[in-house]
Amino acid sequence: xxxDQSLLPGTHRALYHRTATAQATGxxxxxxxxxxxxxxxxxxxxxxxxxxxxxxxxxxxxxxxTFTAVLVLRLRDAGLLDLGDPLAAHLPGTPYGGDATxxxxxxxxxxxxxxxxxxxxxRTEGTLRPQLADLFGPDAQKHPAGRGHHYSNPGYALLGAxxxxxxxxxxxxxxxxxxxxxxxxxxxxxxxxxxxxPGWAVHPHADVLQxxxxxxxxxxxxAGQLWSTLGDLAAFARFLLAGDDAVLGADTLAEMRxxxxxxxxxxxxxxxxxxxxxxxxxxxxxxxxxxSMPGFTAALWTSPADRLAAxxxxxxxxxxxxxxxxxxxxxxxADREPTVPEPWRPMPAADAEPWLVAxxxxxxxxxxxxxLRLLAGRTLVLTPAGGAGRGSRFRPVPGDERRWRxxxxxxxGEILHAVxxxxxxxxxxxxxxxxxxxxxxxxxxxxxxxxxxxxxx
Length: 457
What we know:
8-stranded antiparallel barrel, 23% strand, globular
């Protein structure tokens, strides 16, 4: 596998053509886009008012929510909260959403109002809503908490206030210290810094435009305030793909990508995780976020399976579907230049204990055959041998070398207990007993095995 990540000339041309077409048909003053592959920014392009470059700021809108979610997950990983805690346990006195759990707020399933109280919050100054009590109108609770997905911008303002409370500093300061600085994102700010693209509203029926207001949304900032660049957001995309132990590890990011709630309107969406949208596009599952503020639209999508990410900015209030553009750019690279697999390497010797290697192979749950594999990090993978059935990866339980916890699907969170010794080695997976032969008479299979054994009729 070569270290050269450069794209083929034909791919460059196709990416630029898609970007230029989006700008021309969407009638935005400018569109800028980028692609990240295997951690490298391999392409940037722009069409319209500004030349291509990595350093011009655009407003990224609700992509800000993913930054806020990362800060909350850092609090969880530090042991300062549990995602099942009610918000009021850490933010006492909050007038709305206090009974909702932090996980529900992260996944937009707290049932709170979609928009903040008062005038259109995205076009008005945050001084109109100086306190948390000012964020919601009298009818704040639109649905019972936990019943389904209902997108809530002020819900993320509450999460930003939670970060401030537990860190003892303003949200912007915590953001800079805990995410932007470690990832080297020097051009991501709450208010624009030159060079930046101004935001415009383009008339729907005439080729004329007017400027959109540049607002500081105050307490709503954690929901959609940030400005960023292609270069900085590419660094954030690299982080979302692979993790960074200085910010969040890969396991926590995988948790964020896992659907926490089904979408309210499934049109192309696969669900919403913890601060990440999940969509299906071109046979792929993409995770990331879209964003819009008056004068701007933006999108960032990642495909961990392809080790790819794509992002797109436009400085028009509407017209350019940046979410679709970013997905198309990602697919363009993935289809034209398929991802080269990582080379196979043997696992570290410390993970290859003889009894663990002996644990691998074929196991039976009842009469169904399953294959157990051992990976680096003492991770186990259980797969139905015939392709149909329940499988999962299992991570070791700290402090207990014979127990693993399921990571996905039906067995997510369930414990696999290995009993490799004795007359009938077996696995106990959430009360299901797996044996080396079907219905091993010496194994503790619930209900036992018929004394006559296997017979014909």
